[in-house]
Amino acid sequence: MRFEVWAPEAERVVLECAGTTRALERDGDRAGWWTGEAAAEDGTRYGFSVDGGPVLPDPRSRRQPEGPDGLSAVVDHDRYAWRTPWAGRGVRDAVLYELHVGTYTREGTLDAAADRLGHLAELGVTHVELMPLCPFPGRYGWGYEGVSLWAVHEPYGGPEALKRFVDAAHAHGLGVVLDVVHNHLGPSGNYLPAFGPYFTETHQTPWGAAVNLDAPGSDEVRAYLIGSALAWLRDYRIDGLRLDAVHALVDTRACHFLEELSVAVDSLAAELDRPLSLIAESDLGDPRIVTPRARGGLGLQAQWNDDFHHALHTALTGEAQGYYEDFARAPLTALAKTLTHGFFHDGTYSTFRGRAHGRPVDRARTPAYRFLGYAQTHDQIGNRALGDRLSASLSPGLLACAAALTLTSPFTPMLFMGEEWGATTPWQFFTDHTDPELAEAVRRGRRREFAAHGWAEEDIPDPQDHGTRDRSCLDWSEPAKGHHARLLAWHRDLIALRRARGDLTDPDLAAVRVAYDEEARWFAFRRGDLRIAVNLGKKPVTVPLDGRHARVLAAWEPVETPGADGVVRLPGESCVILATA
């Protein structure tokens, strides 16, 4: 088979393959590329030596059997026999479920996660969003320190296990979205700088030198990232990619990297004749990310909406620190604005940033489903000092209110694993760095960060302690117990209602009507013929719903049908969905 590698500054590149070595030749048609042939088959180990240096893994390695520091292995994607015909599934009318393979089950493998897909199909979600799967040092970690952007973390099961997972998900009618990280690579096991200018000091990011998207050599770096993205979608039949922290993709070129990626993915979708989606995580508050390219946007299908999360979180918890400050001043007002205008900060002053932030959403031309709405995510839980979920501090009634607001919102809803039953297990920050100095630096940094906010260092979980990961694994005995079972049934009912009632997937933000009382802590909004009301206070309230003769479709606590006055009497910490037609 033919081997190739981009090493534009090298004088000599040697391939080591199955114990034999041979010098590669310069590619006469592609500057900076080296090529050569060697006998190989699926599983054959190989690597490259640049200018007499150590044998390193292939930057485009499809498999790292011994981890990021070991040799690469050939993967023959045609060996896998796909069992499930699949026409694809886009994000319109979707309900996503964010899942971390290493803690979704105690086993922490893709095969073990696949065995639990029946639960998700019964829940009614449409897509599983897998957190990053690229190889990283050690066994356990969040995955955002990955390297080898074309490979699958071996302790999760490697390439074949991912194909089995996707096949099983499709058999259940579930699409699969994969979280990918293009804005940085892990500090350990990252050998890309030995091959070429994959990074540039022209820009700095929170992780150091930026990925080279606009400096000399950036054409090939962009092609590397886009090739990786297309490989997940093509070779593994993934339905979409979640792009981590796109605001950290520093790119000054006229055609932004995200636009180029969007063009490539749309072309692949046309070639494969199935929908493919790009979902951005962005801190920019910029709707141009999801604006079609024909209208001057970047052309992605959706983006996370942290503004909705922050408004909902402050309304539920009363927390007001950090970026919650502006939302916490009048949380129901903030919630109302996000439900009707998309963003809270749409050019308004952000106290956290010390400047104006965001850009208005053109409600006439931007459908609400392009924004993901959620009450919890891996970031919003795991980046807390103790990794505590909302269930650690809220009653089951308030958790039910959070579900009602998320699953009946105009946005594309997303749940974080275990949220559907109010899981009591935390989701903490954990690592398994094999470099002792890096491990200690991460440990000290985590404790120092939260000590600055008043936490005692000894109370901060040690990321390197395997017990931190173990505590973060879901307890699958919980869904059948007490209020957990009740919450699970509530989530199933809400998702079924969303699927059955077209008003709940109406993408028109301007059609949403809201009413609320900050002091009494009730909030209500209208979606077509449906009325949703939540009482976040402990005392019963009366809520005018502007809908006479409404009937109850779902309620957390028993609620009487409103009379001719259209007023519903709602118990404390409870919610109701009613229909007026």
From TrEMBL:
Main location group: cytoplasm
Coiled coil: none
Marked site (Transition state stabilizer) residue numbers: 379
SUPFAM superfamilies recorded: (Trans)glycosidases, E set domains
EC assignment: 3.2.1.141
A GO BP entry: trehalose biosynthetic process
Pathway field: Glycan biosynthesis; trehalose biosynthesis
Reaction catalysis annotation: hydrolysis of (1->4)-alpha-D-glucosidic linkage in 4-alpha-D-[(1->4)-alpha-D-glucanosyl]n trehalose to yield trehalose and (1->4)-alpha-D-glucan
UniProt entry keywords in alphabetical sequence: Carbohydrate metabolism, Cytoplasm, Glycosidase, Hydrolase
Annotated spans, Disordered: 44-70
Statement: the UniProt record of this protein carries the keyword ATP-binding: no
Residue ranges of every copy of the Glycosyl hydrolase family 13 catalytic domain listed in the record: 98-448
Cross-referenced SMART domains: Aamy (SM00642)
Molecular function as annotated in GO: 4-alpha-D-(1->4)-alpha-D-glucanotrehalose trehalohydrolase activity
Keyword Cytoplasm: yes
Catalytic residues of the enzyme: 244, 281
Enzyme's top EC category: hydrolase
Gene Ontology cellular component annotations, sorted alphabetically: cytoplasm
Positions bound to substrate: 242-247, 306-310, 378-383
Protein family: Belongs to the glycosyl hydrolase 13 family.
Protein name: Malto-oligosyltrehalose trehalohydrolase
Gene transcribed to yield this protein: treZ
